[in-house]
């Protein structure tokens, strides 16, 4: 059973390149948008899983597809000052992570041009959604005994 997103209606199309949205399809083990299942990155392009964002785990990827980038900004991170841009799902516009444009510290420059995806924003290769804490009232377990 495949859930195809189908054609996106006009209201999702953002300005500049009117109309068609070309999405890259990945094969194999990939991470995808938790909202619209757009493919983002291959598991084998992960450089590091030991990154941390404000919201929990984040992975560093060599390549990410189907994203648009926001405004450049300087961020003062634990590892020094970096120029970063936020990255957004090209299909639904939700923010999924950021990209390192440049780093001041020599030791951090391996991250330049690389992407961070926040783990809780994406679906894993097996379609899993990572949660810091599971929902206490999951579907199908209504408590109703007296
Ligand atoms: Zn999306």
UniProtKB/TrEMBL annotation:
A Pfam family recorded for this sequence: Yippee-Mis18
Stated name of the protein: Protein yippee-like
Yippee domain: residues covered: 29-126
Domain of life of the source: Eukaryota
MF term (GO), any: metal ion binding
Keyword Zinc: yes
InterPro entries linked: Yippee (IPR034751), Yippee/Mis18/Cereblon (IPR004910), Yippee_fam (IPR039058)
UniProt keyword terms in alphabetical order: Metal-binding, Zinc
Family (UniProt): Belongs to the yippee family.
């Amino acid at each position: 059973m495949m859930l195809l997103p189908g054609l996106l209606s006009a209201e999702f199309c953002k300005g500049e390149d009117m109309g068609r949205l070309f999405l890259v399809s990945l094969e194999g083990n990939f991470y995808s948008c938790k909202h619209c299942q757009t493919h983002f990155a291959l598991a084998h392009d992960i450089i590091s899983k030991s990154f941390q964002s404000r919201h929990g785990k984040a992975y560093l990827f060599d390549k990410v597809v189907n994203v648009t980038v926001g405004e450049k900004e300087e961020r003062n991170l634990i590892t020094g000052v970096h120029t970063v841009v936020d990255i957004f799902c090209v299909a639904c516009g939700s923010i999924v992570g950021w990209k390192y444009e440049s780093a001041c510290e020599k030791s951090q420059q391996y991250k330049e041009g690389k992407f961070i995806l926040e783990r809780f924003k994406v679906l894993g290769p097996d379609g899993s959604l990572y949660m810091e804490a599971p929902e206490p009232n999951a579907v199908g377990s209504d408590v109703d005994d007296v």
